[in-house]
Amino acid sequence: MFALRQVAKRFDNGTEALAEVTAEIAPGEFIVLLGPSGCGKSTLLRLLAGLESPSGGEIDWGHGGKPAPGEIGYVFQDPTLLPWADAAANVALPLRLRGVAEAQARARAEAALAQLGLGEFAGMRPRGLSGGMRMRVSIARALVGEPELLLMDEPFAALDELTRQKLQADVHGLWRRSGKTVVFVTHSIYEAAFLASRILMMSPRPGRIAQDFRPRLPEGRERRTSEAYFQLVASLQASVERIMAP
Ligand code: ADP
Ligand code: MG
Q: Whole-prediction pTM value?
């Protein structure tokens, strides 16, 4: 689907965020970018979205140019919802900006909210929703345009542990049902182990891909408690200790 070839990013102030990132990402993968703070994960996500250009190497999206608006969904750590608009209007916003008529945009927004388990809450404003629900609205907004590629930048970092686990399970389930390609950034080993079909471990800045894991864990309830899950956590832990060694 797309390929990164020796992608480097040096900012104008001289900061070298990424050095020689090379990877091929196939349609339908759930990629987790795992690495310490400041290693260039968000930078890599912005490059994948076409929001910034690499200073070296190239990104190939598989169809020539940069992705068009609507081809990619982007979820940030902060849900960034409009406080005066209800959940459905927030989710409909990207469609409205693309000229979709209000009634149709609202209907699609309500369907997207229902997919995230918020069918009943379409008329609620963000103030009336919990942190986890606001993040669900934000994910629905990223999915409403039916993007092929979903980019998520530490979306659950501000949530409590149990809410976070529920959202992880729901996003993992959505991914399995939809067949979309997901690139998800986190610095949590446990989150990476639970979510990913593939984990790209990044080294400290300037970021490179230090290790590429393709775990096979059981689906369903035993996913988080299986032997394979704990073995994966241990492997990721060992890898983190290696890359962080002085
Ligand atoms: P991560 O998401 O892994 O924490 P980032 O991609 O945000 O890391 O940042 C990687 C490095 O690049 C950091 O040192 C950060 O300070 C720097 N950086 C990020 N954006 C910019 C920018 N626009 N200009 C200069 N330096 C930046
Ligand atoms: Mg970041």
A: 0.96
